[in-house]
Design goal:
Blueprint lengths: L2 H17 L5 H12 L3 H13 L3 E6 L7 E6 L1 H31 L1
Antiparallel strand pairs: 1-2
């Protein structure tokens, strides 16, 4: 998948996954690695940026003998951003579908 295009939708996908329930960076990587092809070097900077913008917050969570892991949740600002990005995605995808559908009718 094209890297620039992927960067444009990664924030939307990440916020949607976190909106479904608290997620660790590993949870996010596991969910996004195959369908979008992201790696740790992509996920962590985005999480840091979203947290510094006040869109995410984290708590440390311990499972068994493992060291505590950060679990991210959306803040109110994160929920608002998610709604905004979903609206933008729908508008863009509708416009692209119309354009692509128009080309099929000509052929």
């Amino acid at each position: 998948m094209d890297a620039q295009f992927k960067k444009g939708v990664l924030e939307l996908c990440l916020l949607q996954l976190i909106a479904e329930g608290p997620k660790t960076p590993f949870d996010l990587l596991e969910a996004l690695a195959e369908p979008i092809g992201v790696n740790v070097n992509t996920i962590y900077p985005l999480l840091r940026r979203l947290e510094s913008e006040g869109r995410l917050t984290h708590q440390k969570h311990r499972e068994g003998p493992h060291p505590p892991r950060k679990q991210f949740t959306l803040t109110e600002a994160g929920e608002e951003r998610l709604l905004y990005l979903k609206d933008m995605w729908r508008r863009l995808s509708d416009a692209v579908e119309q354009l692509l559908g128009g080309h099929e009718d000509e052929g």
